[in-house]
Amino acid sequence: xxxxxxxxxxxxxxxLGVCDAHDHLFLSSPQLPGQELNDGAxxxxxxxxxxxxxxxxVVQWTPYGMGRRxxxxxxLSRAAGVHIVCATGLHQAAHYAPELLKALRGKLADVFxxxxxxxxxxxxxxxxxxxxxxxxxALDAHARWTMTAAAEAQRATDAPIAVHLELGTGALxxxxxxxxELGVPPHRVILGxxxxxxxxxxxRRAAESGCWLAFDGPSRSHHATDWRMPDAVRxxxxxxxxxxxxxxxxTVVAGARSVDGGPGMPYLLRRVRPRLVLDxxxxxxxRILTENPAGxxxxxxx
Length: 302
Hints:
TIM Barrel, six-stranded parallel beta sheet, 11 helices, globular
């Protein structure tokens, strides 16, 4: 039976409800000094604000070594009444100390599998997806290493692989590697940040592969793509790919939280959802927020 692996255990996909398919409660990186998501009280407030807006599930894409605070997630989930799915995986090399990456050589896939099946550290919490990342219009040696390990872990567990596309680029290169060379089933690949590079031809070709397309990180002034996103989503839906689309908020710095004055998680339901209803209708918009993430993150765990 397929289940979604949350921080409180495996749940029936039908119980997931309205889902923010890509976000962060906790995150730290040397690339974002002084902007860490590391405040537990603020994380709870943000979850409660999301819940008040009608949300019921959040998928945290924060991977290994980036301040996931996994041990705090079950308590937050219970307190806010929101399902949380957490990730294993590895981001781009720039987010890590070279010593840590060196220590993971030769055992990365084993780390991913252990976190998916046995649990993360001593927390007892099991990851529900694998997060990796590409580069800008290319895949460097680090990306190929992490994606190869992710593919090995996917074969062992059937877990989905969620991919950070740098500025939304490189989608077809990622699919060529993961699904072509490494044999990952396309329906187990989630491409993130497609809204950042609004190339409708690339998006449609990616959708034709059978993968999931995530439009996440709305209202970022330096991306300037909010106004294009509904057009892209509508074009994909009209082409028959409405059942492959996901939506997320991707809050990565403290100032972006709604409780700190930013758009945060509630923005997805407060502003993005009604905007999409105008273009797609309420039924399809609701499907993108409920049935689609249930399908993307539901796994027959091995």
